[in-house]
Structures are given as structure tokens and as C-alpha cells.
Hints:
By secondary structure, the chain is an alpha+beta fold. It has helices at about 10-15, 30, 115-125, 135-170, 180-205, 215-225, 235-240, 245-310, 325-340, 350-375, and strands at about 20-25, 45-60, 60-75, 80-95, 100-110. About 55% of the residues lie in helices and about 15% in strands.
Amino acid sequence: MAFISMSSRSRRRRAAAPLSVTVDVVPPERAGRVPALYDMAVPALAAVRIVPLLAVLNAGAERLVVVGSTRVVVHDDLRTTLMVVVRGLWITDVGDSPAGPTATNWRVELADDRLVDLLETAVRAVPYGGWPDPEGLATEIAKAHAESARNRIRELRVFRYGLEHLLGSNLRGSTHRLESILADVVELSSLVGRAADEAREAVRGGMSVWVTNPAAYHAQRRLQDTALPKRPGARRAARAPWFPILDAGIRQCHGMETEACAEAPLLHSLLNAASTIAVTREAKAQETFNMVAAVGGVMFGVPALILSLYDASDILPLRFENAVVLAPLAIAGLVAALIAALLPGRGRTGKIRRFSVALAAVLAMLLILISAGVLVTPGQ
Length: 380
């Protein structure tokens, strides 16, 4: 809990020493057993920072999207431990389209064999320098990881563009299922919400600088809101060389929260649009079915009525040589279904056209059957 101050000689000695960094990846199935921040055993003279985690890991044709937090602990001898706690893991298939990469088939997983290696490589790839004291080094590492997490929002935005393109393609008759787009939008919306929650918690806690340096926490809070009361040691903490980096890191977390929250309503709008399209298609499908059933019933019922009036007992029982009498009925029903299903127009004009064509087809069938009844004399 003490603030670390060192002589310039000690600073030069520690700056030249190589950093020892240990990365511990906690997968989602073990995230619930990680002790809370209040229960953490902080080593003496160490510095602690916690920042949001958002990573998009390349696994060939798939992407592993990880949401959680990164705990940075820098000991007095600058030994550094990065505990990456994964609280949400999504896996998606990535393809190419004219509008850019598309992420489909989103699914939530509790474990994946590729997670630890890929995430550890990504965490170690985040660049930072080498401050000669624990507070400065922890702050610099945390700020770098916060900026990396914020940059990943851009990739999620590209995935949203891909879903919008798929939705537009579906409207133009694409074979992609609309239900799959709805499911992907829901999962992406949940992911963005979780990322915003992690960033919001980091902003609220000042990247958890209060654990080892409460004065710096209060100094940064007062930068955001000058109406807050002055706290002992806050002015001295604000003059620390690493304090601007702390402020920049918290602002990165706030920027990540803002961008994630901006994505949420856009995804909800996309979800509403897809839902409306699904309901409209269901209504149109029901209307088409009703039209086909009604017209088909008339087209089959009228010939059956005429046959019963003219006595069709001479062709019973049906045999192969006289079954051809049913061919006109089958053709009439097929033509009626095609007319009802393919005739364009859904408004008043379209309905009038459907009714007129269906009525003309029924009248034509009546005329044919009446003519056949007049010209053909049943056998005695």
C-alpha cells in the first residue's frame, strides 16, 4: 500500500535489468474461482493495476473473441505477473465478402484447446517500455493493454458491417438463413455489452490503482471532477512521472466503454430490422399458403362437382388405361398454385390481379367441363 520512491542510481540499475514477465491465462471455466480484488494478497511494495480485456484471436478460418480483465502485478524487484481472466469466450467462422470479412455462426464456449496459447501470445505481443519502479511499470503495462483492448472494438465494428451485408443479401434472395443472422446479432450484442461492462468497471476503479496507491486514485478522480474534495497526498501523487500515463490509461478504458456502448444500439436496430423482416416473411408465406389452398380447393372442387353431376361411374374403378381422366385435375391445381404463388404485387392492385386471374381460371375450367358434358354422351 506504500508509494515507492527510489534514487536515480537505483532507477538506472533497474532500468538496465531485464524484465521477468509471467502470463497466467484463466479460462472461463475457472474464472469463477479467481479471488475478488478485495481478497487479493498483494505483495509488499508491489503495484497492482486491472484493465479490461478484449482480444480477437486468429485461429485460421475461425476467430476466438475473448472478454475479461487483465491483472498486472509488478513486484518490488520488477518481476511482473499478468493474470488474464477470461469471463467470456465466443468462437465465430470468418469468411470473405464484397463488403469485407464476415463473422458468422457465433457460439459461446467454456473452453477451447487453442485459447491459452493464442491468448498468451497476444498478451506478450502488446508493446511497452521499462519503467524503473513498480508503480510506473505497472501503469505503463496496464495502459498498453487498455489501448489494445480498445482497438479491438474496431474489429467488432467490422463484424457488424458484415452482418449488415448478410442481411442485405438475404433480402435480395440469398440462401443464407435469416434465423442464423438473428442468432449472430444476439451473440455479438451480448459480447459488446460484456466488453462495455469490463471497461466501465476499470474506469470506476481507476484501473484499480487504489489498491497500492490511493493518493493517485483520488488525484485522477479529481482531474475528472474538480468538485471532489481534496485528499491527503493527492497533489504529490499527481506530480509522479507516471501519473499522466495512468490518466491516459483510464481515458483509454473510458473510450472503450463509449465505443462499445455506441455499438449496442446499432446492433439492437439491426436485430429489430431482422426480426421485422422475419415476421413479414412469415406473414407473406402464410398469405401465399392461404391463397394456394383456397384457389387449389376451388380448382379441384369444381371439376369434382361437375363429374358428380355427369355421373363418372363409367370410369370406376380406376385402371391404368382410364386414370388419364385425372390429369386435367392435376394440371389445373398446379396452374392455380403457380398463379397464386408467383403473381407479383402485395398491395391492393396485386390482390385484384390475383383475384381476377384466379376467377378467369375457374371460369375457363367450368367452360371446358360444361362443353365436354354437352358433347360426350354417357354409355347406357
